[in-house]
Amino acid sequence: MDNVYQSNHRKIATVLSIIPGVGQIYNKQYLKGFIFLVFAASFLIAFWDFIDLGMWGIVTLGEQLPRDNSIFLLVYGIISIFLIAIAAIFMFINLRDAYKNGQKRDMGLQLNTIRGQYQNLIDSGFPYLMLSPGFFLLLFVVILPIIFVLLLAFTNYDLYHNWPAQLTDWVGLENFKKLFTMEVWRDTFFSVFAWTIIWTLVATSLQIALGVFLAILVNQKELKGKAIIRTLLILPWAVPAFVTILIFSGMFNESFGAINTTILAAFGIDPIPWMTDAMWTRIALIMIQTWLGFPFIFVMVTGVLQAIPNELYEAATVDGASALQKFRQITFPLVMFSIAPILITQYTFNFNNFNVIFLFNSGGPSIPGQNAGGTDILISWIYNLTMTTQQYGMASVITMIMSAVVITIAIWQFRRTKSFQEEDMM
Amino acid sequence: MKKWLGALFALVLVIGVLAACGPDDEPEENANNSDEGTTESTDKPEKLIVWEDQDKGAALEDAAAKFEEEHGIKIEYQEYNITEMQENMALDGNTENAPDVVTMSHDGVGPSVVKGYIAPIEVSDEVLSQYTSSSVEAFEYEGKLYGLPKATETPVFIYNKELLPEVPETMEELYELTKEATNGDEYGFLAIWDDFYHAHGIFHGFGSYVFGGDNDDPSDIGLNNDQAVEALEYIHKWYDEGLFPSGIIGETSNDQMNGLFKQGKAIAVQNGPWAFKDYQDAGIDIGIAPMPKLENGQPVGTFMGVKGWFVTNFKENQEWAQKFVEFVANEENSKTRFDLTGEIPPLVSLLEDEEWVSQNEGAAAVMEQSRDAVAMPSIPEMAEVWDPLKTAVQTVATGKAEPKEALDEAVELIKQNIEMNHGGAN
Amino acid sequence: MSTKQSKIFRLTATYFIIAIMAVVIIYPLVWVFGASLTPGTSISSFSIIPDNPTWNHYKELFNPEESLYLTWYWNTIKVSVLSMLASVITISLMAYSFSRYKFVGRKNGLVTFLILQMIPNFAALIAIFVLANVTGLINTHLGLILIYIGGAIPMNTWLMKGYLDTIPKELDESARMDGAGHFRIFWQIIMPLAKPMIAVVAVFSFITPFTDFILAKVLLRQPEQYTLAVGLYELVSRQYGSEFTLFAAGSIMIAVPIAILFLSLQKYFVSGLTAGGIKG
């Protein structure tokens, strides 16, 4: 048998630790054992009822009215799963600790003193200690909503299946089927999706182009007043977008806004239906997003340009390169290479850019033949589905589909960044 | 690997056991939807939570104080925008902040009943006889009464006495007057007919209707019949000849109309009683009258909205909540309310009080107009009507579509949306 | 000579383009200031210099009898400052761990959260509401602060980790040789060097509460608890009776301090973001 071991403490301690702390006490680590025991007991006392209710709730989504609110129960269920997972991790640490220390005893080694245990905890546990508050928040702020949406896609949660009048039920793939078989859902989905793509590509590319162009322009050596110019060009970023979009919404008003009455009138152009014609609203939105988005790119590119060593240009000058050649051979490739990683985040940002669409014209104007507005992108459509028509189930299905798109692109992108590759090597 | 499988198995087992039991085993958890727990409904609650309309709380304070004095129940009130009541109930309904009594417009009755937010009430005929029968009927849904009236409102004819000395008898006359008055940035009669709430008067006057039956049969939509097309052609006439400026379309049309009227740049508007004070504050000497008759001799059948008090399903104090509703809606308190906030109570006694009628031109006009007005449909399907109709009027007004095709498309869309959002009913 | 001429031409063109940009950038801001001075509630009569300008809208906002603006401002400042402090601490600690330690989940943990956060969560607002309700954090600023911190973590930790990676590891090691503990290295060596990035994180998390009108609207149940964005959005979004001029005045008083804060820290943005976002 195990001739290394002189006794069987490791097994006994592990078995005893099924009640957390008892194994540690058996290992004569009284303080640790006591802490484990108290922790486990208080966890059970505090959460047992909740977990019980939550697990029952997430499976059944409630059984009788008005006692059971299905959606609340669903959330309770997810929280309960989190709590169980936390308990499982604790249990694992507890069992392993009992086993490890039992093993040491079996091998006749000295166990750590209380001070030693503390040192050990601080040393190996330092990163975990630093991460845990943040991780805990992420669990509830990021993960919980995602699981909730994921589950909601398989329920019939809508106006008619809602507390207190009705229970919500699990309906399997019903919502997915509806999205692709019911004509108005399908048509709306594809037309909104198409505009979302166009919006993302055009608005983002324009803001990048303008940002890069201005950065290179301002970076010219001979230019005076760079500091003031840079401050000016960052201004659209500095003013909260929430405010500026609403301001633009007023400026683009068709008969009283400054665009039609002052600016276009000055050039003798007839008023343009910015708010009532989907095409013009789209154009206005793209212009506004360009205005809002270029300063970020401008700042980034300026940073890159300042980091390009002067010797490169000097060498090029010696070789007789023209300004244009220098730009094409040195500046442009270096800039694009450096900012490539953040470009994709700009595209995903606009793909999800709810604020500008919603605040400018609420996704409107409405256009015939679909149940979303003419400028609604997927995310603002989802907002309307939940807040206005309470089609939570369908909204979740659409959320899942668009998430799949965004995540695919994002993963593809992150795999290419340097820091990800660096981590890969570890 | 084996260890992990074991742990996983244990986890599944625990979850399974937990999911199998539930609140049935632990009755004390049943109380999650009521903060009263075991209290019998006949017991006096300490307080009632009332949700009042925005900026109308002043009118509630007096009644609340008296009610507290009489019954020893504290009234806590919270002001919310009346259009957000349902949204807020959806969230707060299952929490401690849930209201006992809410105020809503009657078109919220259908959706709120379907969602189970509000409870039917039973009051004596004596109580009901205080109110005009049309206002009480607005609160009936599927044969049950759900609330008591607080105020009625319907758009009326508001004119600037300086610019329009005499109220025209017919819309024809008004049209001619408007033609004369329209000049540069000065306008005649203005209305935001691109909003179906305001346009309904015209549609109804020409003989169109929203839903069949008692405005409650969603399978029969009368918004693209010949009369509706005529109505829309009539509306188009006003836009086409530049009598309505093009800014009076879309999101901010209401603001723009008010702005022009308040600067004395429009001789008259069609608007509801909520606007009276705003106009007076702007220094306009306004006169208020029912809408002029249409060419065909029919009155403009504006939409009537009746705001009321409702008892919710969220708490167990329904008996007391109903007592409060009866109290706050009684004649005395309604009159006080009118004096404080200008909300016009549909009281029979006021209509018959000639002195009151002569002193309160605006209220009298609203009541007069209410005779020809149509209560907004209160079935949930009504939610699908607004947007498509708005689109139809807007596309016609901007000359992008013919009335017939625009209305056909709108009705088609309404039907689709009803199927989409309400098809799951029952 | 032709190079000199072309240089003059190039610079003139540059100044011209910048002048156009200046107009495009400044015009809306001047316009909204004009709107805030326009009497009445709508902008229908509006010209960039109002006929009879009035400070009434500002007075109204500052009068607690007439408006809750000051309450909202105070709420926002409170939420902003607290979530900024907490975010900076949490994010620094996390970024430091990711940059310097090996632990389970280091490799993909951060990227996973970054990607997960791109999933729109409107359908899940109600889940956040239930969570807040269950924890008693509904209608409290603390609940909102916690959510803002959680939301700020992935992107900012990512940026800061990128920045910390550029600080040579030898510094830590020599300090460790000298007997400094984990926390001392973090606090006395790494943090002072990461100042530009801390400024970036601080500004980002300070501004969020000023601009969020969705989450705050769901979590804060009463007007007295609202933050500025919720309150101001209500002013313009009301279907009947929106008050654009009052909103304009309210916005000016948000936009000006934030813009000043932002611009005064802009030099950090260039160094912080380029190091964190690009080289990282």
Query: What is the N-to-C succession of helices and strands of chain C?
Result: HHHHHHHHHHHHH
What is the helix fraction of residues of chain C, given as a range? over 70%
The number of strands of chain A is 0
Shape of chain A: flat
CATH superfamily of the largest domain in chain A: MetI-like
Query: Tell me, what's the shape of chain C?
Result: flat
Number of domains of chain C: 2
Give the radius of gyration of chain C: 24 Å
- The number of E-state strands of chain C comes to 0
**What is the residue-averaged pLDDT of chain A?**
86
**Which residues of chain C sit in consecutive blocks of at least 5 with pLDDT less than 50?**
none
Order of helices and strands of chain A: HHHHHHHHHHHHHHHHH
- What fraction, in percent, of the residue positions of chain A are helical? over 70%
Termini separation of chain A (Å)?
38 Å
Percent strand of chain C:
under 5%
Strand-residue proportion of chain A: under 5%
Class inferred from helices and paired strands of chain A? mainly alpha
Q: From the 3D structure, determine the CATH topology of the largest domain in chain C.
A: MetI-like fold
Distance N to C terminus of chain C: 45 Å
Keywords (chain A): Cell membrane, Membrane, Sugar transport, Transmembrane, Transmembrane helix, Transport
GO molecular function (chain A): ABC-type maltose transporter activity
Protein name (chain A): Carbohydrate ABC transporter membrane protein 1, CUT1 family
Pfam family, one (chain A): BPD_transp_1
Describe the structure.
The complex is a heterotrimer of chains A (426), B (426) and C (280). Chain A folds into two domains: 9-152, no CATH class; 174-425, Orthogonal Bundle (MetI-like fold). With 426 residues, chain A is mainly alpha-helical. The two termini of chain A are 38 Å apart. Chain A has 17 helices and no strands. In chain A, helix 6 (174-181) packs across helix 16, helix 8 packs across helix 11 and helix 9 (241-251) runs parallel beside helix 14. In chain B, strands 1, 2, 3, 6, 13 and 14 form a six-stranded mixed sheet that branches. In chain B, strands 8-11-7-12 form a four-stranded mixed sheet. A two-stranded antiparallel sheet of chain B has the order 4-5. The two termini of chain B are 49 Å apart. In chain B, helix 8 (196-205) packs across helix 9. Chain C has 280 residues and is mainly alpha-helical. Chain C has two domains: 2-57; 67-279, Orthogonal Bundle (MetI-like fold). Chain C is built from 13 helices and no strands. Chain C has helices at residues 2-36, 56-62, 69-100, 106-116, 125-134, 141-165, 169-177, 182-193, 195-211, 215-219, 228-237, 244-264, 266-279. The longest helix of chain C has 35 residues, at 2-36. Chain C is flat and about 70 Å long. The relative contact order of chain C is 0.14. The chains are: A mainly alpha (426), B alpha/beta (426), C mainly alpha (280). The interface between A and C is large, with 102 and 95 residues. Chain B: Keywords: Cell membrane, Lipoprotein, Membrane, Signal, Sugar transport, Transport. Chain B: Belongs to the bacterial solute-binding protein 1 family. Chain B: Pfam families: SBP_bac_8 (PF13416). Chain B: Residues 22-47 are annotated as: Disordered.
